[in-house]
Amino acid sequence: MIIGEINEFKVKRVADISYILDDGDQEVFLHKKEALTEHEVGDTVKAFIYLDSRRRVCASENTPLITVSKPAFLKVVDVKDEIGYFLYYGMPKDLLLSKDDCIFEESEKPMIGDYLFVYIMVSNGSFRARLVSKARYSEYLHPETVLREKDFYKVFVTSRSINGITCYTKEGHEVFISRGNDRYLHRIGEELTVEIIKKIDDTHYHGSLLKKKVTQLDEDSKKVYEYLKVHKDVVLSESMSPIEIYGIFQMSKSAFKNAVGRLYKDRLIELSNGVIKLKVE
């Protein structure tokens, strides 16, 4: 019997609330709530073996989203700063990814709803998740499809660098998004919709998160306008540094200047000696 894998058993006994399964060497408890159908003595059963909240070995006929030999992207369903991240994998007890096993910068910490690529770690009665290192992704992810340029796909952020972010589809396509094709800081595990702009090979691609220029310009202009409405006493100037602009609006200086130009053209702001103010009606 292998903990963390699907094993084959024979039903040895039937009790009021459970079945006792036997693989020839060991017995294991299968609660009837974890059985997909009714069984009789002698039936063959395939069940996933896991550890419950009391670290007892249990069986379930439900198909898990992950096994010891098959890592997967799992959804973060709870976060406890002092403990770590709890991940749903199809069993009654969520998998714990300990905070000690993942060191994230504050701005890249995953949140509830994000997805992390993990494997199951079993040792000394402990059953928990561990992050798969990027160097080993290719061992487990073998995409059978090819992404098309100019099409959009769901991906999950797996790492950040000064050059950009690396993301993966659930199937295993690697998509790199350079800083020039992105505008924001992203969390590890964050789900994004990316446009494929270049195919390197069947598993490696370059992508972009930039929207069409007109749509992006409208969003940028609205962001600057709403900021001016709320922060009336804050002085905005065209001479602000790129770092200052990004810190306030998370956009480049050229995007900021384009947004200001749109607002000025629409007569929503006034420009005086480089100072930007809402237009007084």
Short description:
The chain is α+β, with helices and mostly antiparallel strands.
Can you tell me the residue ranges where pLDDT is under 50 for at least 5 consecutive residues?
A: none
Helix/strand/pairing class, anyone? Answer: alpha+beta
Strand segment count = 18
First-residue to last-residue Cα separation: 77 Å
DSSP summary: helix tally: 4
> Strands across the major sheet, in which order?
3-2-1-4-5
Helix content: 10-25%
Mean pLDDT over the residues: 89
Strand count, sense and closure of the main sheet?
Answer: 5 strands, antiparallel
- Rg, Cα atoms, Å: 26 Å
Spatial shape? elongated
Oligomer: single chain
Structural description of this entry:
It is built from four helices and 18 strands. With 281 residues, it is an alpha+beta fold. The strands form four sheets. Strands 3-2-1-4-5 form a five-stranded antiparallel sheet, with no helix packed on it. A five-stranded antiparallel sheet has the order 8-7-6-9-10, with no helix packed on it. A five-stranded mixed barrel has the order 11-12-13-15-14. The longest helix has 18 residues, at 213-230. The radius of gyration is 26 Å and the shape is elongated. The model has no long low-confidence stretch (mean pLDDT 89).
